[in-house]
Amino acid sequence: MQSGSLRYIFIADSHLSDPESTESFFSMLDCISSRLLKMEKGQRPALVFLGDIFELWIAISGYETESHCRFLSWCRKYKEEFPVYFIEGNHEFFVSSRHKGDFSRCTADFIRKDEFVFLHGDGVNLTDWKYRSLRILLRNPVTAFLLYLFSGTGGTFLAEKIRKGLKNTNLENKKYFPAAFMVKRACSLLKKDNGILVAGHFHDTHILHAVSSSRKIFTLPAWNQTAGLTGFLFSDGKLVIDSWYKLLNNNEK
After folding, report:
1. 196-199 and 116-119 strand pairing
2. Which pTM does this prediction carry?
């Protein structure tokens, strides 16, 4: 039991690609929605997707799969019942420009709610020039237009090239957690000294405190089909990370 009320549920870095993990993920979403609908509407927490929900999601006609459409349909349905936020990860492209209306809030940057800030985390490391260059190359109108042109012919090949490029390049920086840059980013975004920043991307749990203030920074572990790890953030500022099933059951007691 927590002293504060449940404010946010976080899901990060599920990297859905195969049917088994995808079905497990949607089973979790259905359990979450079923549980939240039992709560009074004004007391329901927001569900926040912190990015990299899919191994690859190019939000252009010809690249989107049945799983992408199923996810959008779920979010579209339940955003009327409780807030559903989506932040693009580095494995998702053009979602915020094409599907903004399918979520309560959708962005490629960050979301600020009261004393909380949420982001994916891929752009925090300012020294990672390889990734920053790749991001500029892939995320621009010219690339979007070229992807659209080739969607009927070489689209599958291009999508696979992008997926492998994201997975296999710049591995040395992927293992590095830029703590100093994360603190700097938190201090620039959090307007209150007692603010909290929550991020994904790094596939591991990190807890940081900004120097000379009570600002806190949390990063969430990857969801993982077996563990089903999620984050529950309460109004008293406590973040609990555990299996979604265990957290839902404990919060109901």
Report:
1. parallel
2. 0.91
